[in-house]
């Protein structure tokens, strides 16, 4: 039995969508056609009354998948606008073609480097094949939501914490391709996936903040040391220039006095050369 089911699955995988639809829209058989003709006859006999049961309308963004005696009647969904059905033998299901968005609930995920994070996201999808979305899955919307949750966990389980925090766009593209491939048989087209938020444990946040602060302090100390080294070199060069011309020191004194006087201070400190003070000290 299992071998027959596997052979049937492989056979269906090799078939195109048109072949699968053709398989569903097979012949009704002699009994089926007899019931359809009988239903059409009664519809014509009671025409003024049955017109309200035969005429159906779907909106511009909707399509109708019609079943006749349990089989899909056509390879293409009906709509938008007016279409006709037989009251006794036909039934139809409306399918919304608009883009649907939903939030992926926060998922507790263990990353590749054994860090537990909580991640949530948003998925945008629409129905691209109304017949497949009705015939291949019982509830395409609910199935897509569950698949998005498991896909998020599977994709993030192969990433480490640094990749989860920095490569959100790559993770979103990977999720979109995986979801789109998995939901293709359901007639669903996944248009976009976005990662909303990544929540880290409080202890890990504190550890990362302390690490970042320590790295910034280390860089600040290195920059300050480089500044001190450059300043000492500049002072050395300035001292060599002043040593070549003793009058340059006197000019520097006068420039300092000019700067002090510009600040409107009441006290002015006038520095004297050391050689003048040494002359008085000898006496």
List keywords for this structure.
rod-shaped; 11 helices; 3-stranded antiparallel sheet
What does this structure look like?
The chain is an alpha+beta fold. The protein is 56% helix and 21% strand. The protein has helices spanning 2-14, 17-24, 29-45, 47-54, 130-135, 140-156, 161-166, 168-182, 202-244, 247-262, 274-282; strands at 55-58, 62-68, 71-72, 81-84, 90-96, 100-110, 116-127, 188-199. It has a 3-stranded antiparallel beta sheet. It has a 3-stranded antiparallel beta sheet with strand order 6-7-8. It has a two-stranded antiparallel sheet with strand order 1-4. A hairpin with a 5-residue loop joins strand 6 and strand 7. Mean pLDDT is 80; it is low at 1-7.
Q: What structural category characterises the helix and strand content?
A: alpha+beta
- Helicity range: 55-70%
Order of helices and strands: HHHHEEEEEEEHHHHEHHH
How many β-strand runs?
A: 8
Shape: rod-shaped
- How does the major sheet shape up? 3 strands, antiparallel
Q: Round the Cα radius of gyration to an integer and report it.
A: 41 Å
Number of helices: 11
Distance between the termini: 124 Å
Biggest sheet strand order reads 3-2-5
Overall mean pLDDT stands at: 80
The quaternary organization reads as single chain
Beta-strand content bin: 15-25%
Pick out the low-confidence regions: 1-7
